[in-house]
């Protein structure tokens, strides 16, 4: 534990007019804007943290993760330094800063955190010429509702200062707890680096019949699968869950190393960009294929010979086979969530 108190500084700034969150508490802009505009990221992070009532913020726990895109490590450092200065008591961060959006949601609910910050621009390109973004999830693990997004935006328009501990440094590669003494703080600030996959994998074990899936992938009537992580955050999850845990051959998974620029292609799981997967599926060797976007909350499914399965049908297939999913057998189903343009497949 570092026994030297770390200074907490207040920095004067000027507000930006373009920091209205969209898409569930998220701000997505060209990466160059975050890098070149003075205090652009600190302003938004301060607005986000200030949107949490002071009584709820002091000493609370928050989760932080990223999709590994360019500028993520710099941004995580700023988020950590500002969270400490704003009275957050504990941060739980994925090893090397990597956490998928579903995993952040899972951890928030598991440890009853106050919320989570995810550094991602979803399916947008990465790299210096790409995009960067910040998303906020609230205590139920879901995206920030409009009332929270509006509060963040109103704060951002009048922001005059932010607080930060610029000398605070965290080792994102080392699993375990790190503690820091801050000036004017009675309790140490804690950071816990956790395995990016563990908690999410345990959740999946409690939902699905892993033995049945393992038999499907390894048994006498096994189905061959092809999964494309598109060099985004899902690489470690695909390797660990589908290959290590469920027995799919290692060559079932492609593009599983998270890259800052996603290999030069937008990490967008569609027929335009997931071309390597599409070509492999068209050959007829594989019976099931899937691709994920950068932060793991969107996917594309392909059947044998490249048959495209739209999201409406995949939801309907789940609804029609609830008896195969242990979680729903035990807990029942309260409803199905879908957007306005969803087809009638679910009704049928």
From TrEMBL:
Domain (Alpha-D-phosphohexomutase alpha/beta/alpha) ranges: 23-162, 200-305
Keyword Zinc-finger: no
Pfam family, one: PGM_PMM_II
Molecular function in Gene Ontology: phosphoglucomutase activity
Keyword field: Phosphoprotein
NCBIfam families: PRK07564.1-1 (NF005737)
Family statement drawn from the similarity comment of this UniProt entry: Belongs to the phosphohexose mutase family.
Protein name, entry field: PGM5 protein
């Amino acid at each position: 534990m570092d026994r030297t108190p770390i200074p907490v500084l207040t920095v004067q700034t000027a507000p930006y007019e373009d920091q209205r969150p969209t898409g569930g508490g998220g701000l997505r802009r060209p990466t160059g804007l975050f890098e070149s505009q003075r205090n652009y990221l600190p302003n938004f992070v301060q607005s986000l943290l200030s949107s949490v009532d002071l009584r709820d913020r002091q000493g609370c726990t928050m989760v932080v993760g990223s999709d590994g895109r360019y500028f993520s490590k710099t941004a995580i450092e700023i988020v950590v330094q500002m969270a400490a200065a704003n009275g957050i008591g504990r941060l739980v961060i994925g090893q090397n800063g990597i956490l998928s959006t579903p995993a952040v949601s899972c951890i928030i609910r598991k440890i009853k955190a106050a919320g989570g910050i995810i550094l991602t621009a979803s399916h947008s390109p990465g790299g210096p010429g790409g995009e960067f973004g910040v998303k906020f999830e609230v205590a139920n693990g879901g995206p920030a509702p409009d009332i929270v997004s509006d509060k963040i935006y109103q704060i951002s328009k009048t922001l005059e200062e932010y607080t930060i501990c610029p000398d605070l440094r965290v080792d994102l590669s080392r699993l375990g707890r790190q503690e820091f003494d801050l000036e004017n703080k009675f309790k140490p600030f804690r950071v816990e680096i956790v395995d990016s996959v563990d908690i999410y994998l345990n959740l999946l074990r409690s939902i699905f019949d892993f033995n049945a899936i393992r038999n499907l992938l390894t048994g006498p009537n096994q189905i061959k699968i092809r999964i494309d992580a598109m060099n985004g955050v899902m690489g470690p999850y695909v390797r660990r869950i589908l290959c290590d845990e469920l027995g799919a051959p290692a060559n079932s998974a492609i593009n599983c190393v998270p890259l800052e620029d996603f290999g030069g292609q937008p990490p967008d799981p569609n027929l335009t960009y997931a071309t390597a997967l599409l070509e492999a599926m068209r050959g007829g060797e594989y019976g099931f294929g899937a691709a994920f976007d950068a932060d793991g909350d969107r996917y594309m499914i392909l059947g044998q010979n490249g048959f495209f399965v739209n999201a409406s049908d995949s939801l309907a297939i789940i609804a029609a086979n609830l008896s195969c999913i242990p979680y729903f057998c035990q807990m029942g189903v309260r409803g199905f969530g879908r957007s306005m343009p969803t087809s009638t497949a679910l009704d049928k």
